[in-house]
Amino acid sequence: MKCRHFGACGSCTLYKLDYEKQLERKAERLRGLLAPFYDGEIERFASPDSHYRARAEFRIWHEGGRADYAMGNLSKDGNVIIEECPKVIRPVEERMEPLLEAVNASPVLSRKLFGVEFLAATTGECLITMLYHRPLDESWAREARALEEQLNASIIGRARKQKVVLSREFVTEELEIDSKKYKYRHYEGGFTQPNPYVNTRMIAWARERAAEAGGGDLLEAYCGLGNFTIPLAENFSKVLATEISKNSIKAAKENCALNGVENIEFVRLSSEEMTSALRKERQFNRLKGINIDEYDFKCVLVDPPRAGLDEATRELITTFENIIYISCNPETLARDLERLSQSHEVHAAASFDQFPHTEHLESGVFLQRRQINP
């Protein structure tokens, strides 16, 4: 990828290395962190070099009577005006300049606009959220509706204690995994994997590990909108999937119906609450109608935030025969493996380059319970 803002914009920090060298640098880092627990092959899944990011957030910089996109600079002490961003997927790139032209042509759209967020899908759909430091009125809605038509996109306006949805608040992504297509509604403000191309490879890798788990039932923590849950469900009799976000659970249930999957129960529980429920320390109304005793859990999938697993969840998942751990922070993954490796052995590992041109790295490990020799 070539970008005229390399060295100025703080979004991409590995711009001096060609992409293959970036991948090797990240692979070496992961190999070092996993070395105490695993010395086998680490599968490496690369990203397209450019046009790979389906989510993007830009500040709006007003100067000299003009509005421009801006990002924090590399030295983290100011902003840099952005004239291009070749990492965003085409449906975002195609709308960036026309949107900015419309904003600069309209005092109504530009007044106190301080940010723009894009959420797109490989299907071509695009959702644009415009952020304001002022209340939004009917004159704004009228011009924004015309802009929706011009850009063939959905627009949301946000101001303090105000959200204006002009048409819809989601895009529908379609991913092909193992020759089967899955549809997902990605909502504005909800968490979605930013790189759909690498996300497809992550899900396929997790499906292979789930097949190795050998049936039974699946427990998933941090399930989000069902990104992994839905494609993995066919490997299990039943699935219990938990997530703390009410909006994510809503989206997950919609995505389940959208794909005609019927063996999943999505429940709004934090990882700590999930642990407490499975240990029967507490009863939760949110589990009403679900008999946990009916589940024969053979596998657990966790995809925690950067902080990794809490101590109680680490202890809980050691009771499962198979563990699929997807990590967005290899350092906390290595920390958690110090405990998990006492009872389980790592049988497979992979790196997923969701964020090219940065130090960020996603990874996955598959663990199975150690065999105790008689």
From TrEMBL:
Q: A Pfam family in this protein?
A: tRNA_U5-meth_tr
Residues at the catalytic site: 328
BP-aspect Gene Ontology terms: methylation; RNA modification; tRNA processing
Q: What is its EC number?
A: 2.1.1.35
Which Gene Ontology cellular-component terms appear in the entry?
Answer: cytosol
* The keyword S-adenosyl-L-methionine is annotated on this UniProt entry: yes
* One Gene Ontology molecular-function label: tRNA (uracil(54)-C5)-methyltransferase activity, S-adenosyl methionine-dependent
Q: Which keywords label this protein? A: Methyltransferase, S-adenosyl-L-methionine, Transferase, tRNA processing
Regions crossing the membrane: none
Tell me the enzyme class.
transferase
Signal peptide interval: none
Record has Membrane as a keyword: no
Q: Which Gene3D superfamilies match?
A: 2.40.50.1070, Vaccinia Virus protein VP39 (3.40.50.150)
Q: Which residues bind S-adenosyl-L-methionine?
A: 193, 222, 243, 303
NCBIfam families named in the record: trmA_only
Family statement drawn from the similarity comment of this UniProt entry: Belongs to the class I-like SAM-binding methyltransferase superfamily. RNA M5U methyltransferase family.
Protein's recorded name? tRNA (Uracil-5-)-methyltransferase
